[in-house]
């Protein structure tokens, strides 16, 4: 149930971000007039891996509830070591997301023609990945401090949002011109 709730929350965030970005459609379509397939693939890989990580994280959180019920709140430093294998997959998978984040950052900064907006967004993406990993490490090694859980969750939602914004900006020509063209709208609206 937690996973479904989180996925629906992410979907709502994506819809709101899309609507916000659509109000800047004219400016955004000029940034990448023909798109960038290589960059697009990297962004989708980054977004996809982050989504998988988020789903695993919600599963780990559900398992944590069972561990807490079994061990109690006084055994805070034992919670992590009593989690199942999914915690270790979730923890290790963050390295892959960090690597993809670095590759995305490198690719954008390597291309001299990359718009300043995209450069800033991929830098923020990388910063959020590092902060996300830092809060995860603090939970794993410091007995799951109460402050780190909401920060970890907030960082994951921010990460997904920034990655979605980058994807929309890189694909603005396709997303806004095609889907808002009079010809397309006449075909769907009677």
From TrEMBL:
The keyword Transmembrane helix applies. It is found in: Membrane. The chain crosses the membrane at residues 6-25, 37-56, 85-109, 121-144, 150-170. InterPro entries: COX15/CtaA_fam (IPR003780). Pathway: Porphyrin-containing compound metabolism. This is Heme A synthase. It holds the Pfam family COX15-CtaA.
């Amino acid at each position: 149930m937690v996973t479904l709730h989180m996925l629906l929350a992410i979907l709502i965030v994506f819809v709101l971000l899309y609507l916000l970005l659509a109000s800047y459609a004219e400016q955004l379509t000029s940034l990448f007039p023909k798109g960038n397939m290589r960059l697009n693939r990297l962004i989708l890989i980054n977004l996809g891996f982050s989504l998988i990580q988020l789903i695993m994280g919600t599963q780990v959180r559900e398992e944590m509830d069972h561990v807490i019920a079994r061990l109690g709140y006084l055994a805070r430093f034992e919670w992590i070591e009593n989690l199942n294998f999914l915690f270790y997959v979730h923890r290790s998978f963050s390295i892959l997301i960090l690597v993809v984040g670095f590759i995305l950052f490198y690719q954008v900064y390597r291309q001299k023609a990359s718009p300043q907006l995209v450069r800033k967004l991929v830098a923020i993406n990388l910063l959020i990945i590092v902060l996300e990993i830092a809060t995860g490490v603090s939970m794993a090694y410091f007995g799951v401090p109460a402050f780190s859980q909401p920060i970890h969750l907030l960082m994951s939602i921010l990460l997904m949002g920034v990655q979605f914004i980058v994807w929309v900006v890189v694909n603005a020509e396709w997303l806004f011109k095609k889907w808002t063209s009079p010809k397309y709208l006449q075909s769907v609206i009677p």
